[in-house]
Automatic annotation (TrEMBL):
Keyword Oxidoreductase in record: yes
Active site (UniProt): 187 (proton acceptor)
EC top class named in words: oxidoreductase
Catalytic activity, EC: 1.1.1.37
Catalytic activity: (S)-malate + NAD(+) = oxaloacetate + NADH + H(+)
Ligand binding (substrate): 92, 98, 131, 162
Protein name: Malate dehydrogenase
Chain sites annotated for binding NAD(+): 12-18, 105, 112, 129-131
Domain (Lactate/malate dehydrogenase N-terminal) ranges: 6-145
Length: 332
């Protein structure tokens, strides 16, 4: 394992996810026994709060944490960074429709993508968490044409983890027993959890659970609407579980996925499974040698194909809005 520090930039560092995520990174949960330099990017009004978080990070006396710096300038924050975690975004406000939301976020993710393209390290990997995460990743990618497109990913790992948790609870087993599931499409309520190739304790999931009505109905709806359910319960969107999923995504990307299993990441499509090129969509993936590879050749049921078409249509509608707004060229 390398001993030179890895530079990591986290945007929205003073927010709820940042408050959990930064400490997980500093503790070594994300990159194992590798020293890290943290760069925290915030809007000017939140810089003071981010400085407070930086003080607490110092007070954690984490052996792997080499430095913490706070910025309100994207060019400086992304300078030399190898891992960019784009968490800060514009939340939906009352009266905002999807186009308003996408326009506001284009104003954040296009400049940040540009700053990554111009200042980040050559090996930069980007994970977009801030919603609407898939399309924000497409916007950032379009603004950084010199960075390989595959380095811009969006987070569907929380959806993946939620699906595992529901299946494990239904079967009365630990989460580690569930393998080879994934979640297609958009991080929205059109997402499609797919268990058709999965196993629980080595037994095919549909055999082990033996309740297709639950799998195709309540399970799917519970996973796809879990974010809203957490908001209704907490009065704020999921934060620690989102941070944990971001840690899982980057750890697997850098260090590799476990042999014999796969996971979910939203990647710019290269046309696999009929998903139009350039849409950033959740797909089954493994990671080898620091690169995501789409798991190919899976047979999709009729129901999954229908649901996949709907979540792709959802992504296309978002893509069409940001094309109209000029954030993404119509060809990407
Ligand atoms: P939060 O409101 O607590 O924090 C967001 C932070 O981002 C704030 O501190 C804000 O000042 C900062 N910010 C806003 N614009 C910025 C900019 N241009 N540059 C840098 N920082 C900026 O929100 P949170 O709970 O931390 O959630 C962050 C985002 O993650 C939201 O969009 C939320 O919907 C999303 N989210 C995604 C998933 C997922 O699975 N993809 C899960 C949970 C939450
Ligand atoms: C989640 O899935 O928990 C979040 O994306 C919900 C949200 O709207 O912030």
């Amino acid at each position: 394992m390398s001993t030179s520090p890895v530079r990591i930039t986290v945007t929205g560092a003073a927010g709820n996810i940042g408050y959990s995520l930064l400490f997980r990174i500093a503790s070594g949960s994300m990159l194992g026994d590798t020293p890290v330099e943290l760069r925290l990017l915030e809007i000017p009004q939140a810089v003071k709060a981010a400085e407070g978080t930086a003080m607490e990070l110092a007070d954690g006396a984490f052996p792997l944490l080499r430095s913490v710096d706070v910025f309100d300038d994207a060019d400086a924050a992304f300078d030399g960074t190898s891992i960019a975690l784009l968490v800060g975004s514009m939340p939906r406000r009352d009266g905002m429709d999807r186009a308003d939301l996408l326009e506001a976020n284009g104003g954040i993710f296009a400049p940040q993508g540009r700053a990554i393209g111009e200042h980040a390290a050559d090996d930069v990997r980007v994970l977009v968490v801030g919603n609407p995460a898939n399309t924000n990743a497409a916007i950032a990618r379009a603004a950084a044409p010199d960075v390989p497109g595959e380095r811009f990913t969006a987070m569907m790992r929380l959806d993946h983890n939620r699906a595992i948790a529901q299946l494990a609870a239904k079967a009365g087993v630990g989460a580690g027993e569930v393998s080879r599931i994934h979640v297609w499409g958009n991080h929205s309520n059109t997402q499609v959890p797919d268990v058709d190739h999965g196993t629980i304790g080595g037994v095919p999931i549909r055999e082990r659970i033996a309740d297709d009505a639950w799998i195709d109905g309540e399970f799917t709806t519970t996973v796809a609407t879990r974010g809203a359910a957490v908001i209704a319960a907490r009065g704020a969107s999921s934060a620690a579980s989102a941070a944990s999923a971001a840690v899982d995504h980057v750890r697997d990307w850098v260090l590799g996925t476990p042999e014999g299993d796969w996971t979910t990441a939203a990647l710019p499509s290269e046309g696999h499974y009929g998903i139009p090129e350039g849409l950033v969509a959740g797909v089954p993936v493994i990671s080898r040698g620091g690169r995501w590879e789409v798991v190919q050749g899976l047979e999709l049921s009729e129901l999954t194909r229908t649901r996949l078409a709907a979540t792709v249509a959802d992504l296309e509608a978002e893509r069409d809005s940001v094309v109209r707004l000029g954030f993404v060229p119509s060809t990407s």
